[in-house]
Amino acid sequence: MKETSTVGLNRSLGLWSALSLVIGTVIGSGIFFKQASVLQMTGSTNLALLAWLLGGLITLADGLTLSEIGAQIPHTGGLYQYMTHIYGEFWGFMSGWMQVIVYAPSIVGSIAGYLGLLMVNFFGVSSFWKAPIAIVTIVLIAVLNMLENRYGATFAIVTTICKLVPIVVIIGFGLFFGHESALGETITSVHQSMGNFGVAVLGTIFAYDGWILITNLGGEIKHPEKLLPLAIILGISIIIVLYLGVTYGIFRSMSATRINALGENATAYFATSAFGVWGGRLINIGIMISIIGALNGKIMSFPRIYYAMAAKHQLPFAKHLGRLNAKTHTPVVATLTLLGLTAAMILTIDTDRLSELCIFVMYSFYIAAFVGVFILRRRHGGQPRGFHTPGYPVVPIFAIVGTGFVVISELFSDFTGAAASMVVIALGMPLYFYLKRKYRDTHDPDVI
User: Is residue 444 a part of any domain in this protein?
Assistant: First the structure.
């Protein structure tokens, strides 16, 4: 198919598409497995619910804060564009470099690998097929997202609806038929040895992560100054309700002791006991669909960072990565690049560990973006433009403190990983200065 760099992205995504991408990208497998781990870390069902709520409120503060920036800078590339606009092209490059080289392929590879593991267990085949299944899955999703963006958006809507079915069933059964009522129960032995409310909140924050990827599609959302903030805020709010609902439903249906003993199998046990063997299998199918939906959101959004950076000549082979397909108006080469890097990582390294190494740097960039709200207001004479964060300045400060908690926790719990992520950042510096010198006389096109 003929391609040309003069082709523009289709600004065709409406509220439902954007909302589905927020919800679908965040909700993967965590909602089905994390109830026991959060309970173990808090030692109390009430504290576990509070941890889920606090993690959600921190995430909502993040979303409210970033929405003010996104409404002012509604361009393709999200965080990369925000960092560039607020702090200059060097820091924009650094935030983009970390994402395109390590974070994007490793997070996609990690999720795809977990899906492969679930599938080999579900169908009872050899573990040899884990990697091939993972790669085939991302290839199929990537091909879908090389078509017009409405196809990926429609798939996001369908998978989001499908993943909501088992979630609503769990919540409904717990509310109306649950009889164990673990609410108020404690696990004394676990609380004494492992209880750590801060670690539990940290775990829930990670479960809420992924909503920011919708900002990568800012150049394809209709009226982004209005719809982008609305999709982020509504999406995060719905996710908070769903996470609390599932946790509450399980606590209403099983004792705290049993949940603790079953660990990650608590939800599957609940489904089997409530609906029989087929109930457990349907939950597993729901989890796999949920993961596929999360993969779709990531594979749809991440290539936009490659495209945005290439359009500003901040990546090698920028001429190719910055092209859009003439018929589909999608970044096909960028999508293929993400696909190739991900497949290589799945076959050669531990993508789970590699994605964990990115947490320290990525959340540091989040903090910088949140601070950017104050910087932009100062530039504009203290007044917001377009959407303004409710509760300013308290909400942005809450977002900064909450995200700072993640960064500090990672620094103390995984100093080696934090240092390794800084090394990756440092490796991008020579490339930045090389490309800057090479294209110093080039007038960079605007990315919309």
Answer: no
Residue 292 belongs to domain with CATH number: 1.20.1740.10
Would you place residue 448 in the very low, low, confident or very high pLDDT band (cuts 50, 70, 90)? very low
Tokens (6 digits) for 357: 């190494």
3-state secondary structure of 3: strand
What's the total number of domains in the chain? 1
How many whole angstroms separate alpha carbon 133 and alpha carbon 125? 11
- pLDDT tens-digit map of 185-209: 667 544 444 448 888 999 899 999 9
| Res 260: pLDDT | 83
Segment 420-445 shows an average pLDDT of: 82
Closest to 220 in 3D by CA, of 397, 18, 4, 426: 18
User: Which pLDDT belongs to residue 182?
Assistant: 62
Is-contact 98 425, C-beta < 8 A? Answer: yes
111 C-beta neighbours (distance < 10 Å), count: 26
Instruction: Estimate the crossing angle of helix 45-72 against helix 79-87, to 10 degrees.
Output: 60
pLDDT of residue 446 exceeding 60? no
Distance, CA of 55 to CA of 59 (rounded, Å): 6
Task: Note the Cα 308 to chain centre separation in Å.
Answer: 19
Helix 277-301 × helix 149-177 angle, to 10° = 150
pLDDT bucket at 32, cuts 50 / 70 / 90: confident
Range of the domain at 107: 9-438
Contacts of 443 (CB under 8 A, 6+ apart): none
Tokens of 350: 């531990």
Q: Determine phi and psi for 403, rounding to 5 degrees.
A: -75, -30
Asked, for residue 327, whether it belongs to a domain, the answer is yes
pLDDT at site 33: 78
Is 2 inside any structural domain?
Answer: no
3-state percent helix, strand, coil for the chain, nearest multiple of 5: 80, 0, 20
At residue 1, does pLDDT exceed 50?
no
Domain assignment of residue 3, yes or no: no
Angle of helix 224-253 relative to helix 197-208, nearest 10 degrees? Answer: 130
> Over the stretch 235-273, which tens digit does the pLDDT of each residue have?
999 999 999 999 998 888 888 888 888 887 787 788 888
At which residue do the structure tokens 């749809």 appear? 300
| Of 67, 74, 6, 79, residue with least CA distance to 309 | 79
